[in-house]
């Protein structure tokens, strides 16, 4: 043991960032290199992290090229836009539940759309249109759902129908598309020629290792499976190595300070809405949010260990007061308070129950942390990481500005479903099925600060729809903001002289109010997964998650009609707690049974021709799930339980998740 005399010094980095640190009294001299270049070591550690990310990107690069080999993938999924449809934009009214014609039983209902109004590109109603195609519901709870009519190759306008029942948990299950071998051989020559250019299918990396997939998909807790946990453990191990390699957190506390600052770009890039890592991996920002939170948690941990190491040494020396009196250390303490406040208000309690508090504290804390770091230290081991982080955030904000549109939307309440239908006729192209947008309603009716809130909603309509209905959202009344939106939709729209003139001409004046909105997106979606390249598809939705399936199925059926889809079978499972919702059977969905049927049809329907040459390999089954975390975990467990040989025969099973909660 040796005793050294220590002068008062900063708890964090010195301005030259090459300090000579000696072990404090009573601290073992355990692997301490006083002249070790910490900034250089941390730099090489970050290079290794980049190398690991590149490995993941390379694994998914084949799917990236396969996806963008199709021209449509360049045009859709990036920026919202308006595309003229037959010279006018049609804004359809919501489908509502009404008593069956000629029936005295109020419980017997059918799906009937209201009369839609046609809107010009300026958004003004021009003429009346009629739509009459209600689908009656039978009393045996059998499905009347049929999106695709193979006989004349047309899409029915009303996609959903079923009977109503009073149950706490209800499920609607149906097969929406089933093309057999005979159908394939009797299709028109035009469609057959088009099917020669079917989209190429590239299975995911996980699907190519079927024996490891069940293990990787094992659910540890809601929202976390073994595969994700391994990524988190790998990242933690790298930082752990960076903390203790030739260093001691008590006698060399500056190492964790360098390490914390170096991870700021990682946290920022995983938290932005637009980042190149997500684009290359085919993952939306919502899927990277788990890693953003985890990286942020480790950053906070490093900051606290960094500070505690210095306090420990000062306490041994008896110089706590002298060191805390230094301006540089006071700024560092302020930054520590900000980052701990950020961590506290970022817990699930605040995110889910008091999102506005979480958001405001997030912004304030981030500004406080970055400013305190810049004032505390600006050496070569800190400044580059701070500047890179600011640059990443600035690029994200600019990109979000380009992806935001200011326009007018019509809002209509749907009492039977407890939803608000938001229709934006001026935007009718630019998104992929399954993507979502971030909506901001600029109206005083949303409350004092409600107009400033931004909320994500899955797009329920298909891009470039032939009816010109534009971008449509179905907003479930579940929180304060959505309740205010629903109440705003119930208010009658003011009658202007122009609209009165339209009524006098015989046009229909819609009483639904219009509001100014900011629409940002599109975001998320299936990424590099192309639903139309699979042989079978199964969509599992919970509650308002049906909007995801609506747009996906409409898009798939349209592609099937023009010979741009390999899908031979599509099944839809909709689980809803609302007794007034659509249902076919009571109880929770029997996902294993439904998935088994999809696998059978995807495999057996691959026979297209005569003799052994007619058999074509199944291109796999995709399972899309949209709903709460518990539903996604249930689907994952069902897929994991499928027999490996059966999974291989079907070409593999891939899962795409759009979950509620984070």
From TrEMBL:
Domain FAD-binding FR-type: 397-529
Domain of life assignment: Eukaryota
Predominant place of localization: membrane
Low complexity: bias regions: 161-190
InterPro entries in alphabetical order: FAD-bd_8 (IPR013112), FAD-bd_FR_type (IPR017927), Fe3_Rdtase_TM_dom (IPR013130), Fe_red_NAD-bd_6 (IPR013121), Ferric/Cupric_Reductase (IPR051410), FNR_nucleotide-bd (IPR039261), Riboflavin_synthase-like_b-brl (IPR017938)
Keyword terms of this UniProt record: Cell membrane, Electron transport, Glycoprotein, Ion transport, Membrane, Oxidoreductase, Transmembrane, Transmembrane helix, Transport
PROSITE patterns per UniProt: FAD_FR
Subcellular location per the Swiss-Prot or TrEMBL entry: Cell membrane
Electron transport as UniProt keyword: yes
GO MF annotations in UniProt: ferric-chelate reductase (NADPH) activity
UniProt keyword Transmembrane helix, yes or no: yes
EC number of the protein: 1.16.1.9
Protein name: ferric-chelate reductase (NADPH)
One BP annotation, GO: iron ion transport
Membrane-spanning parts: 41-66, 226-244, 264-282, 294-312, 332-350, 357-378
GO-annotated cellular components: plasma membrane
Pfam families in alphabetical order: FAD_binding_8, Ferric_reduct, NAD_binding_6
Catalytic activity: 2 a Fe(II)-siderophore + NADP(+) + H(+) = 2 a Fe(III)-siderophore + NADPH
Sequence similarity: Belongs to the ferric reductase (FRE) family.
Disordered as annotated region, ranges: 159-193
Membrane topology: Multi-pass membrane protein
């Amino acid at each position: 043991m040796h005793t050294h005399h220590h002068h008062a010094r900063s708890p964090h980095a010195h301005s030259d960032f090459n300090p000579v640190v000696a072990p404090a009294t009573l601290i073992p001299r355990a692997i301490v290199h006083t002249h070790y270049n910490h900034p250089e070591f941390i730099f090489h550690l970050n290079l290794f992290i980049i190398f690991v990310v590149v490995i993941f990107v390379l694994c998914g690069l084949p799917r990236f090229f396969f996806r963008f080999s199709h021209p449509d993938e360049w045009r859709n999924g990036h920026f919202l836009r308006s595309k003229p449809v037959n010279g006018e934009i049609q804004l359809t009214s919501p489908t509502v539940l009404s008593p069956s014609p000629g029936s005295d039983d109020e419980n017997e209902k059918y799906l009937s759309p209201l009369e839609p109004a046609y809107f010009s590109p300026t958004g003004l109603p021009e003429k009346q249109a009629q739509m009459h195609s209600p689908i009656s519901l039978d009393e045996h709870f059998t499905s009347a759902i049929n999106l695709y009519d193979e006989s004349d190759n047309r899409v029915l306008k009303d996609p959903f129908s079923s009977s109503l029942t009073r149950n706490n948990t209800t499920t609607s299950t149906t097969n929406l598309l089933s093309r057999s071998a005979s159908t394939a051989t009797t299709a028109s020559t035009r469609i057959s020629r088009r099917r020669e250019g079917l989209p190429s299918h590239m299975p995911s990396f996980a699907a190519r290792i079927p024996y490891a997939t069940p293990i990787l998909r094992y659910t540890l807790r809601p929202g976390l499976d073994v595969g994700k946990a391994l990524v988190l453990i790998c990242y933690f191990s790298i930082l752990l190595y960076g903390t203790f390699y030739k260093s001691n957190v008590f006698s060399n506390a500056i190492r964790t300070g360098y390490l914390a600052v170096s991870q700021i770009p990682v946290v920022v890039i995983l938290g932005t809405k637009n980042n190149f890592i997500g684009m290359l991996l085919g993952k939306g920002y919502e899927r990277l949010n788990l890693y953003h939170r985890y990286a942020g948690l480790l950053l906070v941990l490093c900051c606290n260990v960094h500070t505690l190491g210095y306090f420990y040494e000062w306490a041994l020396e008896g110089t706590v007061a002298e060191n805390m009196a230094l301006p540089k250390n006071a700024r560092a303490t302020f930054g520590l308070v900000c980052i701990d406040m950020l961590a506290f208000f970022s817990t699930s309690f605040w995110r889910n129950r008091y999102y506005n508090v979480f958001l405001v504290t997030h912004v304030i804390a981030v500004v406080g942390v970055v400013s305190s770091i810049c004032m505390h230290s600006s050496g070569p081991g800190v400044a580059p990481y701070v500047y890179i982080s600011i640059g990443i955030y600035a690029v994200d904000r600019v990109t979000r500005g380009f992806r935001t549109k200011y326009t007018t939307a019509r809002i209509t309440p749907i009492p039977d479903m407890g939803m608000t239908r938001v229709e934006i006729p001026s935007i009718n192209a630019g998104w992929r099925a399954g993507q979502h947008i971030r909506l901001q309603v600029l109206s005083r009716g949303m409350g004092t600060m409600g107009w400033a809130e931004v909320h994500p909603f899955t797009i329920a309509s298909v891009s470039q729809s032939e009816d010109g209905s534009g971008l449509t959202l179905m907003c479930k009344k579940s929180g304060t903001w959505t309740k205010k939106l629903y109440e705003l939709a119930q208010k009658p729209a003011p009658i202007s002289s122009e609209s009165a003139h339209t009524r006098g001409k015989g046009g229909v004046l819609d009483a639904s109010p219009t509001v100014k909105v900011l629409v940002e997106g599109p975001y998320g979606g299936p990424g590099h997964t192309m639903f139309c390249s699979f042989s079978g598809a199964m969509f599992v939705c919970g509650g308002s998650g049906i909007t995801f399936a609506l747009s996906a199925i409409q898009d798939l059926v349209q592609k099937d009609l023009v010979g741009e889809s390999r899908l031979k079978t599509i099944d839809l499972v909709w689980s809803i707690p609302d007794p007034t919702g659509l249902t076919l059977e009571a109880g929770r969905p029997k996902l294993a049974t439904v998935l088994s049927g999809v696998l059978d049809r995807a495999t057996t329907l691959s026979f297209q021709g005569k003799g052994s040459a007619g058999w074509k390999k199944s291109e796999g089954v995709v399972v899309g799930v949209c709903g709460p975390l518990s539903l996604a975990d249930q689907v994952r467990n069902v897929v994991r339980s499928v027999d490996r040989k059966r999974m291989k025969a079907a070409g593999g099973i891939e899962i795409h998740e759009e979950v509620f909660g984070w």
